[in-house]
Design goal:
This protein is an all-alpha fold. The protein is 77% helix and 0% strand. The protein contains 7 helices and no strands. It has helices spanning 2-21, 24-49, 54-78, 93-105, 111-133, 142-164, 173-195. The protein is globular, with a radius of gyration of 17 Å.
Length: 198
Amino acid sequence: ILQIAVLLVCTLIAAKKALDLDSRDWTLLAFFFANFALDDLYLVICLLTVGESSILFVVSELSWYAAFIFLYLLILQAAPPETAKETRLLPWLGPVFAAGMAVFFIQWGNIVSNLIYAVLIGLILFAVTRRLMDREQYARQRPLCVTALVFCLLEYALWTASCFFEGESITNPYYLFDLMITLCFPFFIRGTRKAVGE
């Protein structure tokens, strides 16, 4: 409920900025927030009314895929790639890490779903790491890139916790990581504001 509330507020803020400034950056951010909010809301309503079902999680995952796509597009929009510079080795570790995590998660989940997440998050990790390495070119975009990097790593921490810890106890680290992800969302607003030069 807390995450849905935070996401709805963030969606409204980003949507208002998008309308006021006629900005693609803010529009992409609003879509990113809205997809996460709708996904969470959909899961809560379905679990309360229908109970657990594999159909629920397919629809839910489609919404998450869209959210990650909008996040990737936001990074490309706010920090267009510098074509003159060659890519160093470090950014490639992001896709390698995402692929390794997909192989790890396949034993608990769907192969196709894990591969899609690996591609999407691998692209995001590559993009943000490349931009964080170039301090001069992407100085304004650093807060957005750092937030996206932390967000992706927290997602992996959350998913890993769900593999090893079960139950709804407050001591389950899953809830801690989920709370940290929730607290991460407002930082996307701050990062986007700096990236677009407000």
